Amino acid sequence: MNRIYSFLGFAEMNLANKLHQLIQFKFKQMKYKSQKVAYWFFAFSMLLLVLQITYGFVMGFARIGLDGLHDFIPFNTARAVHTNLLVVWLLSGFMGAAYYIIPEEAQRELVNVKLAYVQLISLAIVGVTAIVGYHFNWWEGRKFLEIPRQLDYLVVINVLLFLGLILTTLFKGKRKTTTALVLSMGLLFAALLYLPGMLPFDSQVTDSFFRWWVVHLWVEGVWELIMGGILSFLLIKLTGVDREVIEKWLYVIVGLTFLSGVLGTGHHYYYIGVNKIWLVVGGIFSALEPLAFLAMALFAVNMYRKGEKKHPNTLALFWTLGSAIVSFIGAGLLGFAHTLPQTNLYTHGTLVTAMHGHYAFWGAYAMIVLAIISYSLPNLTGRKLYESVRGRAAFWLSNIGMLGMTVAFGVAGVVQVYLERKLKMEFMEVQNEISIHFVVLLLCATLFTTGIVLYIIDFIKHGRPSDEALETIKN
Amino acid sequence: MLSKKQARAFFLGGTLVTFLAFIGLTIYSFSDPQDQTNHAAITEQVVRGKDLWESNNCMGCHTILGEGGYYAPELTKVLDRRGPGYVKAVLMSPIPWEPNGRKMVAYGFSEEEAADLIAFFDWIDDIDLNGFDRVVSPLSKDDK
Ligand code: HEM
Ligand code: HEM
Ligand SMILES: [Fe+2]
Fold first, then answer.
1. Among A70, A269, A424, whose Cβ lies nearest the Cβ of B141?
2. Which of A5, A465, B73, B106 could form a disulfide with A427 if both were Cys (CB 3.0 to 4.6 A apart)?
3. Chain B contact for A299, CB < 8 A?
4. CB–CB contact B28 A427 (8 Å)
5. CB contact under 8 A, A351 and B70
């Protein structure tokens, strides 16, 4: 039993605690007052995560025939809300991460704290307006980019304000680290890539073509820079490995990302009515995309092994390593599973895609946001709840739950592909055959949600950020 | 051993080269001789159909060209499969269409709106999808 406990990391907690008392840990607290603003972005993130999950359940129940909410929240509303909330809580998490990381890397206060709060509030207003609008048929039916054009302009202004604050802080700072540059570059490119999604087209094909410039080049391109930047910051803090070593590998990883990911966009162009050349280009380059995720996982695990200092915040370490590993499985392996044109011909637009979408988003982006929150929260609030059993349980329950959901989607997807596209059965006949897998999905989703609820209780127990948490021991 | 400087050069170089190739391929794909969509056949009615498709977020449940929600049937080649009469009845239904225990939103479109959407589907149906159309359309059922 003890073995299992220590395998799950429960035993390490006490050890870590003692270690913490023994050595005065060098990097322990928040260093700049303005970092506190990050807390509120994280809190907003958590709120949206809860809402996202709620709408997930609405869809899950609809799929097993319990669609009592149909008149108020039809499936397309639930779906748009579910996926948009996902994107917004992740972005809010990334922004929080930037407000925490950039001052520390640049070694100065944020240039204007008030404007950062204005940015958060305006983000919340735009986000909430969009979500409410989806319940009243106010949207654009363009998968993942449902936000109406009018609101898009407000999104742009909001993001410009954010970038202005981050970039001026960086450039006025004492140092410009690679970590900070990669993170900021990711955020800047993410903003630029939002623009092609705003262009209007008469042709559904062209529309879809440029929609992928946003969706694909985000998750398989510039967001990986953001992830890499956060990962590298966390590894520097948690393992104590030399910055130069970590940042060198960071360049290699983001290099692999763009080398494969840009032309890899072609895997969305196989069957939407554009030239066959994409079958070759997309096939080859997207098949290379897992390399970047593999590199990320190896990088994180190796830095952890190399590290001599063991930071007492093992919870943050779990989320950090977990993110690097799960993203390789969800994005790398499960992405590869349907990225070759011969396979994608049959899986394109089926629940197989939903399987991959969940595990990839969870591993790469949800977990890295939860990692930076777990790392920064004790520093911002001064309450070191490193030993929390609740936090540990949150990690395992949410991960096991999400793995189960992925398997449920996957089995449903493979059966769907076989019955519908090989045996040519009717769509709805097949759907009725596979509805049992959605019962399993809902059970696993309950486990997952329990984990997230525990995480959020832990979040709340940390209390508010406080200036008393400012670093006192100068090194 | 690889230095940080070399690592950065790899990043910048790789990005530049693939990005330029990507732009080049995009321009090539949209050049007239490569058109697989019968672009000239996009009439005003087709565009109105697309607007309705978007403003009601049909894609939130259905896939088209394999893209969208997985809750409702693929609508590429729907006219081949069901015929325009059936599609029109679904679109104009004042109560939720629910043939197999799963409800569609009751849009209650007008005659004209239904015709616009059907024109849109008709245009979609003629796109050369590099073989995907055979997987999702009844034509493939005739394939031996
Ligand atoms: C963290 C990174 C990733 C995330 C968050 C992610 C997420 C998603 C999502 C949400 C979709 C559904 C898009 C839609 O149909 O509208 C999708 C589709 C797809 N992804 Fe990923 N993905 C990631 C990485 C990868 C990688 C590395 C590969 C390839 C090795 C890959 C291969 C694919 C393919 C082939 C599709 C199209 C499926 C279809 O035809 O329906 N993905 N991805
Ligand atoms: C209680 C938990 C959840 C449930 C029950 C759930 C359920 C669902 C369902 C039923 C769909 C629609 C699939 C369809 O179109 O038929 C969906 C879509 C999606 N969900 Fe979730 N979800 C949950 C949590 C999450 C989380 C935590 C994430 C991200 C980390 C996520 C990311 C997505 C994405 C990216 C899509 C779009 C997939 C695609 O179009 O391929 N979901 N979800
Ligand atoms: Fe992609």
1. A424
2. B73
3. no
4. no
5. yes
List, for residues B74-92, the tens digit of each pLDDT value.
Answer: 999 999 999 999 999 999 9
Report which ligand 1 atom has the smallest distance to the Cα of A331.
24
For atom 20 of ligand 1, the residue with the nearest CA is A335
Retrieve residue A124's tokens. 């919340």
CATH topology for B38-143 is Cytochrome Bc1 Complex; Chain D, domain 2 (1.10.760)
Taking the CA of A334 as reference, the closest ligand is 1
Its pTM stands at 0.94
Domain assignment present for A13: no
Torsion of CA B75, B76, B80, B82, to 10 degrees: 0
Q: Mutual orientation of helices A243-264 and A178-194 as an angle, nearest 10°? A: 20
Q: Is A4 exposed, middle or buried (0-12, 13-18, 19+ CB in 10 A)?
A: exposed
> Does residue A146 lie within any of the structural domains?
yes
Termini Cα distance of chain B: 57
Q: What domain count does chain A have? A: 1
Q: Residue A185 CB: number of other CB atoms within 10 A?
A: 15
State whether the beta carbon of A216 lies less than 6 angstroms from ligand 2: no
- B68: DSSP letter: E
Judged by a CB distance cut-off of 8 A, whether residue B16 touches chain A is no
Q: Is A292 on the interface with B (CB under 8 A)?
A: no
Instruction: Sketch the domain layout of chain B as residue ranges.
Output: 4-33, 38-143
Burial of A202 (0-12, 13-18, 19+ CB in 10 A): middle
Is residue A97 assigned to a domain? yes
Residue A160: inside a domain, yes or no? yes
- Chosen for mutation from B26, B30, B58, B71 (greatest number of chain A CBs closer than 10 Å) is B71
- Residues 6+ positions from A394 with CB-CB distance below 8 Å: A451, A452, A454, A455, A458
**Structural domain for A253, as ranges:** 35-474
Q: What is the CATH number of the domain that holds A288?
A: 1.20.210.10
Question: pLDDT (tens digit, 0 to 9) for every residue of chain A, 475 residues total?
Answer: 455 555 565 555 455 554 444 444 444 578 899 999 999 999 999 999 999 999 999 999 999 999 999 999 999 999 999 999 999 999 999 999 999 999 999 999 999 999 999 999 999 999 999 999 999 999 999 999 999 999 999 999 999 999 999 999 999 999 999 999 999 999 999 999 999 999 999 999 999 999 999 999 999 999 999 999 999 999 999 999 999 999 999 999 999 999 999 999 999 999 999 999 999 999 999 999 999 999 999 999 999 999 987 889 999 999 999 999 999 999 999 999 999 999 999 999 999 999 999 999 999 999 999 999 999 999 999 998 887 899 999 999 999 999 999 999 999 999 999 999 999 999 999 999 999 999 999 999 999 999 999 999 999 999 999 988 887 644 3
Query: Which residues line ligand 1 at a C-beta cut-off of 6 Å?
Result: A 143, 219-220, 267-268, 286, 289-290, 327, 331-332, 335-336, 338-339, 344, 348-349, 353, 356-357, 360-361, 364; B 66-67
User: Rounded to the nearest 5°, which phi and psi values hold at B2?
Assistant: -60, 135
Closest residue by Cα to atom 21, ligand 1, is A335
